[in-house]
Design brief:
6 strands, binds iron/sulfur cluster, iron-sulfur
Length: 240
């Protein structure tokens, strides 16, 4: 794929493409982005959750040279790091580690012990949002695994969007897929996934902020349980 810097698409173009690609396979949506702006203009944000392991397979099929990064809060489950390593081995791909320079010890000194229990918004800002903001400055577009059915805040997600927060093209190739479609893809391709998904963890974040869900509970009920928080601040799809 060409590495030439191309003109940034207008909001009108993005809206039109979002309509045209609504029913397209996620791979076609990724292909559009990488051809439109060049692969080096894009990066894929991988959390190693099940949507993202499917997307690892898809983005690498379109172009193995694409940058894939993960936000390392230093607070992930061991199973999440193991999933990263299994994917790295399977695809022979190095995942870029993006993290704050603030160690957990420094954070505890400055903000008190276990900030996540008292003010998860500040903790997420320090350990996720700020490092992400800094990292994304290198790119013109990013790819994410968010889907409409994941949360009310994501119910209007389009497959192609202009991301106002970061000033980037945002591709959400799985926006219209349901969880069954994603799992079918994973099983068909035999893609490594986080074993916690088989232990009632449909959505996996940091260890202190994630619990398993009970039968009948919302899939994201295990994230920041007991608080009103449902997003870490990375995805600002507005409620319409
Ligand atoms: S998910 Fe929890 S531990 Fe992780 S950064 Fe956010 S508040 Fe901190």
């Amino acid at each position: 794929m060409s590495q030439v810097v191309k003109e940034f698409p207008s909001k009108e173009e993005l809206k039109q493409v979002a309509q045209e690609l609504r029913d397209a396979h996620p791979i076609e949506i990724i292909r559009w982005g990488l051809e439109r702006l060049g692969t080096s203009a894009f990066t894929f944000a991988c959390s190693f959750g099940y949507e993202d392991v499917a997307l690892v397979d898809m983005v690498l099929e379109v172009d193995p040279s694409i940058d894939i990064f993960y936000l390392d809060t230093d607070l992930h489950f061991p199973e999440t790091y193991q999933t990263r390593d299994r994917l790295a081995e399977r695809y022979q791909k190095e995942f870029i580690r993006v993290a704050t320079t603030l160690t957990l010890e420094e954070q505890a000194k400055q903000y008190g012990e276990k900030l996540w229990t008292r003010n998860p918004d500040i903790c997420c800002r320090l350990r996720k949002v700020e490092p992400l903001k800094e990292f994304l400055k290198r790119y013109q577009g990013w790819i994410t695994g968010i889907r409409r059915e994941q949360a009310p805040t994501r119910a209007h997600t389009e497959v192609v969007e202009y991301d106002q927060t970061f000033g980037l093209v945002k591709l959400n190739p799985l926006a219209f897929w349901n969880s069954k479609q994603v799992w079918n893809y994973i099983h068909e391709k035999n893609i490594p996934y986080n074993p916690l998904h088989d232990q009632n963890y449909p959505s996996i974040g940091c260890l202190p902020c994630t619990r398993p869900v009970q039968p009948g509970e919302d899939p994201r009920a295990g994230r920041w349980a007991g608080t009103q928080k449902i997003e870490c601040g990375l995805h600002n799809t507005p409620l319409k």
